[in-house]
Amino acid sequence: GCSEATLKRLLANVLRKCPDARQKVATDQSLQAELAIVTEEERRKAEEDQYKEVKTGAVDEQTDEIDFYERAKFVPMRLTYDERKYLRLIDSTMHVSHYTDHMDAGPGARMNPARKMALQM
Fold first, then answer.
1. Domain ranges within the chain, ordered by starting residue
2. Which domain of life is it from (predicted)?
3. First vs last C-alpha separation in the chain
4. What are the backbone dihedrals phi and psi of residue 68, each rounded to the nearest 5 degrees, phi first?
5. pLDDT digits (tens, 9 = 90+) for 92-120
6. Which of 32, 40, 51, 105 would be a feasible disulfide site paired with 19, CB 3.0-4.6 Å?
7. How many whole angstroms separate alpha carbon 87 and alpha carbon 102?
8. How far apart are CA 25 and CA 91, in angstroms?
9. What is the pLDDT of residues 34-84, one digit of tens each?
């Protein structure tokens, strides 16, 4: 026999993947909220449209990079645990690199090595 949790998972999968079964259960059980759920066709179309690019007009070559950074602020992105770790590693590396560039450039290049080390500490 199957456990109750296994049966619930099986039923949920069947209802999720088979719109006809979902419609029949909703009708038989008088579940008005379930009847109001979008159809499978509408769901598929929404998934396809989700990543389509919206054309708004001619684009300058120079504004492509700026536009990319502006759009990136608003694009939702879900990262896995490993991807988040790598993102933090890259961000930290960039921060250290910026700090190193800052310390190596300017007056630090002409400064006494002992004074430079004291400032870095």
1. 1-49, 79-121
2. Eukaryota
3. 68
4. -60, -45
5. 888 888 777 777 766 656 777 788 778 77
6. 40
7. 22
8. 50
9. 555 666 777 778 777 776 766 555 555 556 667 777 777 666 677 788 888
